[in-house]
Design goal:
Elements lengths: L1 E7 L5 H10 L5 E4 L4 E8 L2 H13 L3 E6 L9 E4 L10 H7 L4 H12 L5 H10 L7 H9 L7 H10 L3 E9 H11 L3 E10 L2 E7 L5 H15 L6 E5 L5 H5 L3 E5 L3 H6 L2 E3 L6 H5 L2
Parallel strand pairs: 5-6, 5-9, 6-7, 9-10, 10-11
Antiparallel strand pairs: 1-3, 1-4, 2-3, 7-8
Length: about 280
């Protein structure tokens, strides 16, 4: 199969990109995509080549992506994103726990869940229980003081929205944050867990069903059905094991700063580039 190879990295110089391009063998041409990205046209794909290039690129701080020639944003109708550690830089529950002095305990559970070592629903229940009694104002503090959009996130969203794609933020995190990000970023759809608050304090419980891996997949499928499109017309971005099911039904799966189990299964791995690295791949 003949494909294109996109090489990009925020610190990569042209010489490094050209050196990596030569590893791909004979090509039909090279196209510069800005100062830190290069497209190698007409590469013959094979798994051995991919493994070698992935290793060399990773060592050089470069993201290497094989993509079918001619694929552009116009092939897609929806971008679905995980929130914590994907669209935003933090794990909200870890930062909320920090307000209780419990960040190390909660973060350890979060990490194990994201690596796929713990059932997500069970891990979330355990983590939320540790927040019992915390003043609900802590959520606003986390949003104001700690929540930041991931590198390239706003540029990526502006581009996909300009191209006419709809957007979905689907999170195992909390509606407190998705409800604020929706108008801020002009998102079309959001879905997340609701923390129970009584008398201004967290009860340590989640209201309703938990947004786990299966629910994330169902949400992507439901929004696609509402839009009258196939899941193959969706791009799905995530970082943790609980994103794999929704990524598996997509037309293009993107692992962003992801755990190894996710990088290995995704179509695209952005380990160094921002979320707007997607734009070079689908240019």
């Amino acid at each position: 199969m003949t494909t294109n190879l996109v090489l990009q990295g925020p610190q990569a110089d042209h010489a490094t990109l050209e050196r990596l391009a030569r590893l791909a063998g004979p090509a039909q041409g090279l196209t510069a995509l800005g100062g830190h990205a290069l497209r190698v046209d007409g590469v013959t794909f094979d798994p051995v080549l991919k493994a070698e290039l992935d290793a060399a690129a990773f060592a050089a701080g470069v993201d290497a992506t094989f993509i079918a020639a001619g694929r552009t944003l116009a092939d897609f109708r929806l971008v679905a994103m995980d929130m914590d550690s994907t669209l935003i830089t933090i794990e909200c529950i870890d930062e909320i726990a920090d307000m209780q002095g419990l960040k190390p305990q909660v973060a350890a559970i979060t990490e194990a869940a994201m690596r796929g070592e713990l059932d997500f629903s069970e891990s979330l229940t355990r983590r939320v229980a540790l927040l019992e009694g915390l003043d609900a104002s802590a959520l606003q503090r986390v949003y104001d003081e700690r929540l930041r959009i991931s590198m390239g996130g706003e540029a990526m969203l502006r581009a996909v929205q300009a191209a006419g794609l709809k957007t979905l933020l689907v999170s195992g995190g909390f509606t407190f944050f998705t409800d604020r990000l929706k108008p801020r970023l002009g998102l079309d759809h959001t879905h997340a867990n609701t923390l129970e608050v009584v008398d201004g304090k967290l009860t340590g419980r989640v209201l309703g069903g938990i947004v786990d891996a299966e629910e994330k997949k169902r949400t992507v499928e439901r929004v696609c059905a509402e839009l009258g499109i196939a899941p193959a017309q969706a791009i799905v971005m995530g970082d943790g094991a609980n994103d794999l099911k929704m990524m598996s039904v997509s037309g293009l799966s993107v692992a962003f700063r992801a755990k190894p189990v996710v990088r290995e299964q995704a179509d695209v791995a952005l380990n160094f580039s921002g979320l707007d690295g997607l734009l070079n791949i689908l240019s």
